[in-house]
């Protein structure tokens, strides 16, 4: 283990200050609140359909896998490209 790795390891073991932890908690709570507000008013069926679409975009889509293999990229990049093309 080199000196740089030892410094990184010891830095990761140090406890974080209370102010840092409070800021991280605030950021996390704000993100959760925004996600919740974004879902308000959307029918549950549509939310479920969106979740399935997200799932279909990558690993469960054999066409995306084939395109990814042909273009030497990952299936997620292919799915994003297809979505932009639509």
Write structural notes for this entry:
The chain has helices spanning 3-13, 18-39, 44-56, 62-71, 75-85. With 86 residues, it is mostly helical. It has a domain at 30-86. Helix 4 packs across helix 5. The protein is flat, with a radius of gyration of 21 Å. The relative contact order is 0.06.
Give a brief description.
The chain is mainly α and about 90 residues long. The protein has helices at about 5-15, 20-40, 45-55, 60-70, 75-85. Helix content is about 80%, strand content about 0%.
What attributes does this structure have?
flat; mainly alpha
The total of helices stands at 5
Which radius of gyration do the C-alpha atoms yield?
Answer: 21 Å
Q: How many β-strands, per DSSP?
A: 0
Coarse shape: flat
Report the average pLDDT across residues: 77
Unreliable runs: none
Determine the strand fraction and express it as a percent band: under 5%
What does the largest sheet look like?
none
What structural category do the secondary elements indicate? mainly alpha
Rounded to the nearest angstrom, the distance between the terminal CA atoms is: 50 Å
């Amino acid at each position: 283990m080199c000196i740089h790795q030892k410094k990184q390891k010891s830095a990761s073991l140090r406890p974080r200050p209370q102010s840092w932890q409070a800021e991280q908690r605030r950021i996390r709570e704000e993100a959760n609140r925004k996600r919740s507000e974004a879902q308000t008013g959307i029918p549950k069926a549509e939310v479920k359909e969106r979740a399935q679409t997200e799932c279909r975009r990558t690993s469960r889509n054999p066409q995306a896998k084939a395109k990814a293999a042909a273009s030497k990229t990952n299936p997620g990049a292919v799915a994003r490209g297809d979505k932009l093309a639509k």
